[in-house]
Amino acid sequence: QVQLVESGGGLVQPGDSLRLSCAASGFTLGDYHIGWFRQAPGKEREGVSMISSRAISTYYTDSVKGRFTISRDNAKNTVYLQMNSLKPEDTAVYYCARRRRDRIANNLTWSRIGDYDYWGQGTQVTVSS
Q1: CB of 38 within 8 A of CB of 45?
Q2: Over the stretch 82-116, which tens digit does the pLDDT of each residue have?
Q3: What confidence tens digit (pLDDT) does each residue in 17-49 have?
Q4: Is residue 75 very low, low, confident or very high in pLDDT (cuts 50, 70, 90)?
C-alpha cells in the first residue's frame, strides 16, 4: 500500500537548520510530484513547497523562499526539505503528500490540498529560544 513517512523534525533555536525526509513506499516515486505542507496550531494547513516528479520544477510559498530547499532522490524513494534560518513562525507539523497525477501543477495550483491523494503522518518542527 502507499505510504509516506516523514522524519527529521525536532526542537531547534531560531536561525538553526533542519532537514526533513519523506520516505515513500508502495508506488514508484519517480512518477509523482511530491509536496510539503505544514499546519500550525489553530491554523489551516498550508503548502510549503512542491517538487515535480523528475525535479525539473520546484515551488515555494513566499515565506520560505531563500531559506528552504526541496529535493528528491528517486533511487532512494525519498524527498527532502532542507530548512535553514528557521524562525519561530515555522513551528508546525510538517507533512509530505503525493500529488494526483491527473492534476496539473503550476505556480497557481501546486498548493491545493485537494490535489494530493496520500499524506504522511507528519513530523513536528518547533523553533523556539
Answers
A1: yes
A2: 999 999 999 999 999 999 998 999 999 999 999 99
A3: 999 999 999 999 999 999 999 999 999 999 999
A4: very high
Q: Indicate the length of the chain as a whole number.
A: 129
Q: What is the CA radius of gyration of the chain?
A: 14
- Phi-psi domain of 29 (left: phi exceeds 0; alpha: psi -120 through 50; beta: other): alpha
- For 15, the grid coordinates are 536561525
Residue 68: all three cell numbers together: 528552504
Cβ contact 40:91 at 8 Å: yes
CA distance 12 to 33: 29
Bridge-partner residues for 97, per DSSP? 35, 119
Q: Which helix (DSSP H) or strand (DSSP E) does residue 118 occupy?
A: strand 116-119
Count of C-beta atoms within a 10 Å radius of residue 102:
7
